[in-house]
Specification:
By secondary structure, this protein is α/β, with parallel strands linked by helices. α4 runs parallel beside α6, α5 runs parallel beside α6 and α8 packs parallel to α12. The longest helix is centred in the middle third of the chain and has 14 residues. The radius of gyration is 21 Å and the shape is globular. It binds ligand EPZ.
Length: 417
């Protein structure tokens, strides 16, 4: 298993370009199953998760060609509505093929996703909504087996769910009639999926301020010449937090600033200097970090996927801060590892209390999930001396070229087998 050897304590300077959004491109890739055709998708990050999704689409019968960050998907010959356990267990987002398979084949067999580092990740919202649309759902040997032709229906989610919203929108675009989806996710990644679907002929009305979509089923979609995926706001936020902690000055290119508004606001509160342009921002950190509390919530709230990174920033703040995790109550596997750098963090249920220290001490640490591992890399880049971050296959799921990108900023980081 690969690991990073990091010599920390050096400030970072220069420019970094953000890749396409993992959490936008995964459902868009799945959506190409709905209507047979040839789809060209641009700004696709080459990651373990996008490669896994490509493999899954090939198992279903699609032909995929990656060339640089462009993906060509030919879904004309899809004929196998099955998503096997060995793929779904490595990537929960495989569940995104459920809606598209049902829409195309009126049947789907998708393995029930397992849990992840921070506990169970249920899919009851997805299944309840599909039943309301007329599907029959059975569990057979760990697989969800679903059959039925989908009808428009009024869906109201008990809790906002990114994945369930994406799945039901994809199930509804060719369903018979109108589907109204309430208490839905309006994360930029889902808005990007909706934009892609409308570009290929779907009829989806978005009521963002009401967390509502109205999908009028159409008979046929058309494939399109090419579609560009939005930049990854979580990758961008990770680099913003990195320079705030490590010190220095960097320009982050290829972003959509209003996707990061809450992060910009919180960093300004923490005393970081930020200059926002229309597709980039320059961020400089030269003074002590002020303690700033955050509470994670659905968009446009503070993203849970930046919670671990924010925590590591607060470990050097001048004072006490509090992080409340409302999306995944137990998403704190990074705390034990951060303590190995000398951080002082106390956990009470879904609240972490951080007491700022003067410096971080280098240490060997282990990644536990994709965003926790990013927080360990940032901490190691700050701590003077040599640190080791193991099990970085977690990072490879969601951060394209992270060694090159930090290397170009002057960081001393290398990957060893
Ligand atoms: C998406 O996961 C993201 N993944 C996650 O990012 C992100 O953390 C999460 O949304 C929240 O923003 C992708 O987009 C591929 P949810 P998803 O359904 O869709 C509960 C990363 O780091 N829930 O919005 O699986 C669930 O347990 C990953 O890139 C149910 O109870 O998340 C959680 O508490 C990690 N039943 C809450 O809803 C369900 O049927 C939100 O989960 C579905 C969800």
């Amino acid at each position: 298993m690969d690991k990073f050897i990091i010599n920390g304590g050096r400030k970072i300077f220069g420019e970094v370009t953000i890749s396409g959004s993992k959490n936008a491109v995964l459902p868009i890739m799945a959506a190409t199953i709905i209507e047979p055709g040839i789809y060209t998708i641009k700004n696709v990050p080459i990651l373990r998760d996008t490669v896994t999704m490509a493999r899954l689409l090939e198992i279903i019968g699609a032909k995929i060609t990656f060339s640089d960050n462009q993906l060509i998907i030919d879904s004309n010959n899809c004929n196998n509505p099955i998503a096997p356990y060995d793929l779904v267990k490595t990537m929960r987002a495989s569940f995104y093929v459920l809606g598209p398979l049902l829409s195309r084949f009126n049947e789907a067999t998708v393995s029930l996703p397992g849990g992840c580092a921070w506990g169970p990740r249920p899919v009851d919202f997805h299944l309840k909504a599909l039943k309301e649309m007329g599907a029959k759902v059975n569990l057979d040997y760990g697989n969800i087996v679903i059959t039925g032709s989908l009808k428009g229906s009024n869906i109201k989610f008990k809790k906002i769910s990114v994945g369930a919203t994406g799945n039901i929108i994809m199930a509804a675009v060719k369903a018979d009639g109108i589907t109204v989806i309430e208490n839905a996710s309006v994360e930029p990644e889902i808005i990007n999926l909706v934009d892609f679907l409308n570009n290929i002929g779907a009829d989806i009305k978005v009521f963002k301020d009401k967390n509502r979509y109205v999908v009028a089923g159409v008979d046929k979609l058309n494939c399109l010449s090419e579609y560009e995926v939005i930049p990854d706001r979580i990758e961008a936020g990770t680099y913003m937090i990195a320079v705030a902690l490590i010190g220095g000055k960097i320009t982050i290119n290829n972003i959509i600033p209003n996707h990061l508004q809450i992060v910009i606001d919180k960093m300004l509160d923490a005393g970081v200097m930020i200059n926002v342009a229309d597709q980039s921002l320059t961020i400089e950190s030269s003074q002590p970090i002020k303690p700033v509390n955050i509470t994670t919530s659905e968009y446009p709230g503070f993203p849970t996927d930046l919670q671990a990174q924010w925590m590591v920033l607060m470990t050097l703040a001048k004072g006490e801060s509090k992080i409340t995790e409302n999306i995944y109550k137990d998403r704190f596997t990074h705390i034990a590892e951060l303590k190995r750098f000398g951080c002082i963090i106390r956990l009470e249920e879904n609240c972490a209390f951080i007491t700022g220290v003067d410096k971080l001490k280098s240490a060997p640490v282990m990644s536990t999930d994709i965003r926790a591992s990013a927080s360990l890399v940032i901490a190691a880049l700050k701590a003077k001396g040599e640190s080791e971050v193991s099990r970085i296959y977690h990072l490879d799921r969601g951060y394209e070229n992270i060694v090159d990108k930090f290397g170009q900023l002057g960081a001393n980081i290398k990957r060893v087998k």
